[in-house]
Amino acid sequence: MGQILSHFAYTVVISTVFSIVVSFTVTPLLASRMLPEQMKEPGKIGRALDRFFNSLENLYRRSLAVILKRKWRSALVGVAVIALFILSIMGFTKIPMELVPQSDGGKIRVSVELPLGSSLDTTAAVLAEIEGRLADYKEVKTLQTALGLMGSMDIDVSVAMMEIALVPKAQRKLSNSQLAADMTRTLSDIPGAIIQVTAPAELAIAQGAPIDLYLQGADNQVLQELGTEIKNRIQNVPGIMSTAINTKAGKNELVFEPNRKQISQDGLTVQSIAVSLRAAVDGIVATTYREGGEEFDIRVKMKDSALMDIEDLRNIPIASPRGVYPLSRYADVHFESGYNKIMRSNKFRTVEISAELLPDYTQGPVMAEVMKAVKEVELPSGYTLKQAGLSDAMDESNHSMAIVFLTAILLVYMLLAAVLENLAQPLFILLTIPLSIIGVVAACLLTGTKINNIAMIGIVMLVGIVVNNAILILDYYNQLKKEGLGVVDALVKACPVKLKAILMSNIAIILGMVPMAMGIGASLAEMRQPMGVIVIGGIISSTVLTLWFIPALEYFVSCRSRLEGRKI
């Protein structure tokens, strides 16, 4: 996730640096050349805006005078803001979480698996039935089918995969995830086939399904039984569809279990038995025949007619120092069920259980319900169950984003402490970050926006944006304090003076984020939209609350400091 979003960070940093350089150089130069010497009288719009901002400043000044008149009133403002923050934290737990927004890539993938041993003709007939049903969808543009292949690790005549390309989003009412859910219902009555319909995202952060679990242990048979039980429990969780397990019983295979004691008594080795068996079944190259400058290998083996069933294999002659005996003297030959796939992760035998999500369901809440369901399965000693794929990526990414957020706060504090030469006031400024969280939660709950990595990037951006309001107020307040004004007078004068600058800068940021929050754009609009909603909500709440909270907090702390000074 860091590699994907690092370019976004580079863009923000570079553009900000260049804007600072331009504002210090090009802007004053152009102003000195283009602005008139004498200010003209403002027009109707200008006078209306001036009256509007003047009325806001007067109203703001009177409200500050009321709040800063008594210390308990300032404390009341602080208590109210803290109560709002606590309510927002409680609301934050109700916001669904996911790794990334589900983007509509305009494609659907259908995986088909028939019973083991099915012929290619049978598989083709089932695929023809599926194609006929899906071709009736007006949203389907093209169908592409691959017989005998279902991923790089699943190759057999009994499997197949279909890629469906949909018409552009503007020409259909349903998203690809909604269509995938509807197609699952359409194909559910096809007998004898395991059909999984998925809607690939336009931008894949990690491989795997939204619900992905790894069951690890030593014995394949135990893993198969436990995996089937877990799969059955998962598919009963609300919001789950297309549950799958990546392993199943394979074809029957012949197994030769050597009798090591008898082999040793007769003066043989397991290797010599294996060589004799291979020579009888597959043959060995005994010599080479040369004719006309060409060479031909002469392979010696038993006749195919002599190896027609398992009894013929058991009677293969094996020569030993004690004489010639049948293979059954030295090995137990029998049939066993094989495995079509043996998967390992970190050197452990692994079974993967995965599932897709129905539309309008979110990865985080559904994953929590899945983990509750699978905890009821008692795992034997030596067997573990853990999240993998997108599920594991979400937990890891949330942890990383928390570190990024705390690092951003630390860097901002270090900078403010160095510039202001004060350790306390930077803490006041950083308190505007919780104020922005109030707006973030409110915006998410009102618009139905989900918390994901893109939204978290917006929260990290707010760390550098919302502190500007408090910086403008406290910087001018400190200047007035140095000029000899008291705490109340300096706050009542500094805050209204900076009101217009605060409102204009924040309104500009909000307007710049509106197109993103509206989801304008044909490609990856779903990915950008959460960031726009988060930033707008955070800026609105931080701007409104900072105008009263920071002055009230500064006044309350200053009064307390004076009282402590008098006691000393």
Descriptive terms for the model:
four-stranded antiparallel beta sheet, 18 helices, Multidrug efflux transporter AcrB transmembrane fold, alpha+beta, Alpha-Beta Plaits, Multidrug efflux transporter AcrB TolC docking domain, DN and DC subdomains, 19% strand
At a glance:
The protein starts with a helix and ends with a helix. The chain has 568 residues and is α+β, with helices and mostly antiparallel strands.
CATH topology of the domain at 48-94 and 422-567: Multidrug efflux transporter AcrB transmembrane fold
CATH architecture of the domain at 48-94 and 422-567: Up-down Bundle
**Tertiary shape:** elongated
Rounded to the nearest angstrom, the radius of gyration is 36 Å
Compute the average pLDDT: 84
Note the beta-strand portion: 15-25%
How many DSSP helices? Answer: 18
Helical fraction equals 40-55%
Structural class: alpha+beta
CATH top level of the domain at 48-94 and 422-567 is Mainly Alpha
Main β-sheet: number of strands, strand sense, barrel status? 5 strands, antiparallel
Number of strands: 15
CATH superfamily of the domain at 48-94 and 422-567: Multidrug efflux transporter AcrB transmembrane domain
Span between termini? 54 Å
- In terms of per-residue confidence, which ranges show pLDDT below 50 for 5 or more consecutive residues? 563-568
Describe the protein.
By secondary structure, this protein is of the alpha+beta class. Among the domains are: 48-94 and 422-567, Multidrug efflux transporter AcrB transmembrane fold (Up-down Bundle), CATH 1.20.1640.10; 104-200, Alpha-Beta Plaits (2-Layer Sandwich), CATH 3.30.70; 252-339, Multidrug efflux transporter AcrB TolC docking domain, DN and DC subdomains (2-Layer Sandwich), CATH 3.30.2090. The chain is 55% helix and 19% strand. The chain contains 18 helices and 15 strands. The chain has helices spanning 2-24, 26-34, 44-67, 71-92, 120-134, 176-186, 220-234, 260-265, 270-281, 310-314, 363-374, 389-420, 425-430, 432-447, 453-465, 467-482, 487-517, 525-567; strands spanning 107-113, 140-149, 155-166, 194-198, 211-217, 240-245, 249-258, 284-291, 294-300, 317-320, 323-326, 331-339, 343-345, 348-357, 384-387. The strands form 5 sheets. Strands 5, 6, 13, 14 and 15 form a 5-stranded antiparallel sheet that branches. A 4-stranded antiparallel sheet has the order 2-3-1-4. A two-stranded antiparallel sheet has the order 7-12. The radius of gyration is 36 Å and the shape is elongated. The two termini are 54 Å apart.
